[in-house]
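Help needed: design a sequence for this.
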């Protein structure tokens, strides 16, 4: 069962990184203008953001197995659409469908682990999810480069048989875990949440961060932020009255979940910063792009090794200490990147420190706290909220890097200033982490009597 869950999460994570090597070939096939090519990524992020909380909540409502199967089916259909695309908009449609399905795999996997794995072993099992993400970052570009020998379309075709095989295994192995008393699905809240998320992604993507005051006056930007300003209070009002809200207000009223959400925002921003490590290596050391992709190996390998270790520590010393240790290591690595002379030794040492630090944050500890806080009937919604915070942090981090680097006369100092800002954000998160509870020895009662 765990193998099915982990391969499903790996499949979703791979398709963020695997398409990178294919971008030049996609640009040549469809004659895409360079400024539109990043939409291949941003569309995936947008619909992953939209799909995560909606499918997580749906799993609370209709059961884990059913939603895991539905998510794999949607992911497979999106892969077929992308592989058969006859135009760039068609490719973007396929990526959007893919991402929406992928949004249901991680929160459902975490909820199933919470329901089937004993408390004393839950931390190390959740820690393996962090290792899965590390493996995805490592394998994605390598598999992408390998499959490109035939055609970029094979990057998407290969998903289909894997998804079908997983569906067959999941139908036999995963628990249904349906709600004992199904309630009406929160369609209005789901639609409003999707609208606010879409406006957030589009608004951040179009904002000129080098001149934010002028950018906010653009017709491509201010309507999005106006929609957010109107949509958020309306969403809150709808969710307070909904019989079964997609984002239960009780979750947002929890001090523990607010702290976890703030930490997750900082973690997401750091993730976005680490994506640019190869470009930093090219600018600093003058190596080619192919060699630069290998400079992420120390970070990725420490992430893979550290995630199970963090899960083991979680079971023995509790989540607060593990989270604080992870944040401290991340801050140390980011400060090395930003302040010390950037030679090869410091570059790799910084990457390793950030890798170990992030391994204690991405996999088990934050999800462990969320699972204990939300109660049995809202595990999917709690995991969806956590994933949402990480993804929003990624978007904000990437937008900030783009603005800082774009406005700098030299890109390399711009990158280093951005990483220093992320170090400050993680320091603030470390200060907030003192509000987390220590080791949890028993299950908590569900929030709001759920």
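Sure. Designed sequence:
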């Amino acid at each position: 069962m765990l193998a099915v869950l982990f391969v499903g999460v790996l499949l979703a994570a791979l398709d963020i990184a695997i398409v990178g090597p294919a971008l030049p070939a996609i640009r040549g096939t469809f004659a895409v203008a360079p400024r539109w090519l990043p939409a291949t990524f941003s569309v995936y992020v947008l619909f992953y953001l939209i799909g995560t909380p909606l499918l997580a909540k749906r799993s609370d409502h209709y059961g884990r197995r059913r939603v895991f199967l539905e998510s794999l089916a949607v992911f497979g259909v999106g892969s077929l659409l992308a592989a058969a695309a006859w135009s760039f908009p068609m490719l973007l449609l396929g990526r959007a469908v893919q991402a929406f399905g992928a949004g249901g795999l991680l929160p459902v996997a975490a909820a199933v682990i919470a329901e089937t794995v004993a408390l004393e072993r839950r931390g190390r099992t959740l820690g393996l999810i962090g290792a899965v993400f590390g493996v995805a970052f490592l394998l994605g570009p390598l598999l992408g480069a390998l499959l490109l020998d035939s055609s970029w379309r094979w990057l998407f075709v290969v998903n289909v048989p894997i998804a079908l095989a997983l569906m067959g295994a999941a139908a036999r192995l995963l628990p249904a875990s349906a709600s004992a008393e199904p309630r009406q699905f929160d369609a209005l809240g789901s639609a409003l949440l999707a609208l606010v998320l879409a406006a957030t992604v589009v608004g951040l993507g179009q904002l000129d961060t080098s001149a934010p005051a002028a950018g906010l006056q653009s017709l491509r930007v201010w309507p999005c932020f106006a929609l957010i300003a109107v949509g958020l209070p309306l969403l809150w009002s709808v969710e307070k009255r909904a019989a079964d809200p997609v984002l239960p207000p009780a979750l947002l009223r929890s001090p523990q979940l607010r702290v976890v959400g703030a930490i997750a925002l900082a973690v997401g921003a750091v993730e976005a910063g680490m994506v640019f490590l190869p470009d930093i290596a090219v600018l600093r050391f003058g190596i080619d792009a192919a060699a630069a992709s290998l400079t992420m190996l120390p970070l990725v390998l420490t992430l893979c090794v550290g995630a199970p270790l963090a899960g083991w520590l979680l079971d023995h010393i509790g989540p607060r200490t593990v989270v604080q240790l992870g944040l401290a290591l991340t801050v140390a690595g980011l400060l090395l990147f930003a302040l010390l002379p950037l030679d090869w030794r410091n570059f790799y040492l910084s990457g390793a420190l950030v890798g170990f630090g992030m391994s204690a944050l991405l996999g088990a500890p934050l999800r462990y706290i969320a699972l204990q806080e939300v109660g049995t009937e809202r595990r999917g919604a709690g995991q969806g909220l956590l994933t949402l915070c990480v993804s929003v942090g990624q978007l904000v981090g990437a937008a900030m890097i783009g603005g800082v680097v774009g406005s700098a006369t030299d890109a390399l100092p711009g990158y280093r200033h951005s990483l220093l800002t992320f170090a400050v954000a993680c320091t603030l998160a470390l200060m907030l982490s003192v509000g987390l509870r220590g080791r949890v020895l028993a299950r908590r009662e569900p929030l709001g009597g759920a």
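Residues 441-450 have pLDDT under 50 and may be disordered.
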